[in-house]
Fold Diaminopimelate decarboxylase.
Amino acid sequence: PHLRMDALDGLLFEGVPLQHIARETGTPVWVTGAGTLRARYRRLAEAMREAGLGARIHYAIKANDHLAVLRVLAAEGAGADVVSGGELMRAVEAGIAPERIVFSGVGKTAEEMRLALRLGIGQLNLESAEELSLLSGIAEAMGAEARVALRVNPDVDALTHAKISTGKAGDKFGIAYADAAALYARAAALPGIVPLGFAVHIGSQIATPAPFRAAFERIAALVARVRESGHAVRMVDCGGGLGISYRDEAEGSPRAFAGAIAATLGGLGLDLAIEPGRWLVGPSGVLLTRVIRVKQDGGAPPFVVLDSAMNDLLRPSLYEAWHGVVPLSAADAAGPAAPAHLVGPVCETGDTLARHRTLPLLTDGAAVAILDTGAYGAVMSSTYNARPLAAQVLVDGERWAVIRPRQPVEALWRDESVPDWIGPASP
Ligand code: LLP
């Protein structure tokens, strides 16, 4: 509904013709829809409420951490899930109250822990006994109290891409299920530590509620066991992972997700929280790109070389991810659909957006939108091949604004220096 084809204006994102943005800012350019973001946040929050869960929503900012995105979601009531000192500072910079921030991640440094405690964030999700000991020492030395949840690895199969599964035994994440109860008891006895409960996150782009349910059942059993042994458990953080529809798969259902939480953890008198990333922002963004040239290669489908590449959108190269591609207007489609390989200009065979994709005929200069790139898109960009970071635009109903200009190429070497002894390029 946020994206539709208009006979006159071409592809509209909310109320803005995308061809205007492509023309005025140049390509490649990431476009995020603020109205779409708000609508998705409200759908998710409503599903939680309808299931009778007063769950707090901590947006996993790794998915898209632009300040404007954070501000839009924070204004809707979102807190943040962060995984680095940098993300923590970004969330604070965007105006998210520290007590609404949760710090996750397997490798928090002592410095990051100090920063978190100094800012007084809501909660740290700990992933190992080693991390717990370190945090206790740091909190004690600072005279602070660290509110913590233990992230448990429930050993369930999330049925997703291996590179984004996080809750199987053998994945680097979380505390082994069998060790969690004992470590919680230890946490309760440590100075500087206030154990609140448990956290679980089994992976990303999960399409069906079954893996969630299996994980939450195990956490519910753990909560019961720990309570029986006399320890208070006040909260469970149910993680993120809800999938979206990139191709023809069904979009993960907020209702079914909320239902899985309600059925397993709902009746236990717990404060509940979730950490969604992709579901909120993925469909709220597109990447606009233009055909540099079509390279005809005797017989085989032609290579359509785009001006965006794996340095911009890494997902197809890294996960064989599928993203929809739509011409921006009738003028960008020169003829009937035919198979093509869509590639970028980067010098790697893996720099392929789509192979054997049947699309309306694309010729030199045609502009297309790559769909569902709002999550894990711009945030995973690099400047490989000295390609400056692409511009970013925010659309909001009929309005739009550049929220990050295209990086000037000089910025790529501005912070580099050559030691004196190297001498000039030509002696
Ligand atoms: N919480 C934790 C602890 C996480 O590790 C993640 C994602 C989330 C929440 C949010 O998950 P989501 O709701 O977005 O599925 N770059 C990959 C995805 C990596 C996900 C990492 N962790 C991709 O492009 O598919």
